[in-house]
Amino acid sequence: MSPRVVRTAAELRALEGTIALVPTMGALHDGHVQLMKHARPLADTLVASIFVNPTQFAAGEDLDSYPRTWEADLERCEEAGVDVVFAPEVATMYPAGLDDQVMVDPGPLGAILEGEQRPTHFRGVLTVVAKLFGLVRPDVAVFGEKDYQQLALIRLMVDALCLDVEVVGCPTVREADGLAMSSRNRYLAPDERQRAVALSQALDAGVAAGSHGPEAARAAALARLADFGVVPDYVAVTSPDLGDPTPGEARILIAARVGKPRLLDNRALTLGRAPEGS
Ligand SMILES: Nc1ncnc2c1ncn2[C@@H]1O[C@H](COP(=O)(O)OP(=O)(O)OP(=O)(O)O)[C@@H](O)[C@H]1O
Ligand SMILES: CC(C)(CO)[C@@H](O)C(=O)[O-]
Ligand code: BAL
């Protein structure tokens, strides 16, 4: 059955039973469909939001050219068993205007990695996610690990602001060659699409070198990126909660521009101790 499209808070208030929410910015791909399929059995009603959130884009970023594929998105939502697509106008999300004086401050975790490259990004993301939680009032909300720092910050926000929403993370869905699916992949020219596999291969190299410690993991990932001529914005090896890495469970994260689009990827890894004297 086709999902019902709703645009207002009043329509959302009429929803009954438990609610699962999958927030998106549209241009839906199989990664989004997996999030929706994962969310489907978690509640009576499955809501997917489609909203290209202006406040998470800085001036000069790709807000205006961000892909918008409405008809195809509705088909993907239907395929995934979505009941309701919430597609608000900007004024519904930002009734006080885009220079809204009340915004969510992401704190120190919002200032590193992606936050260093995009200083106002997470303020916009957390603000819109908080607004979506307030409007949709979900019992559970599902996000992708592809945007690992975003997922970590949303969990922190839910704890810090005492929001009554269960946050569920889903593994990254990849193309056959390992490239993490992303709405912006469609901007890769054919030769860039081939080079884009550098990110997942660099993560593989980092994971394989992890037994020799975090610096070895980082060096292996950087070397693999260099093989493809890809210069990253960052390659970071962290603890699972994005702090300093210690032996055991850890995370390796990469961001890099390949041609026009800026791509993100990350993987879990297990760190050994760095060799003595390194
Ligand atoms: N390959 C993927 N696997 C799993 N989840 C994903 C994947 N790509 C995106 N998601 C998740 O889908 C949700 C909506 O993301 P969004 O609409 O920004 O898509 P995107 O593909 O990440 O777009 P962009 O190219 O702008 O980064 C987020 O929770 C995001 O982490
Ligand atoms: C969580 C989100 C939908 C907020 O606009 C966006 O950052 C995204 O698509 O990952
Ligand atoms: N998934 C992250 C959305 C953004 O880059 O704004």
From TrEMBL:
InterPro entries: Pantoate_ligase, Pantoate_ligase_C, Rossmann-like_a/b/a_fold. The keyword Ligase applies. One of its GO terms (molecular function) is ligase activity. Signal peptide: none annotated. Pathway: Cofactor biosynthesis; (R)-pantothenate biosynthesis; (R)-pantothenate from (R)-pantoate and beta-alanine: step 1/1. Keywords: ATP-binding, Cytoplasm, Ligase, Nucleotide-binding, Pantothenate biosynthesis. The keyword Cytoplasm applies. Transmembrane segments: none annotated. It is an enzyme of class 6 (ligase). Beta-alanine binds at residue 56. Catalyzes the condensation of pantoate with beta-alanine in an ATP-dependent reaction via a pantoyl-adenylate intermediate. This is Pantothenate synthetase.
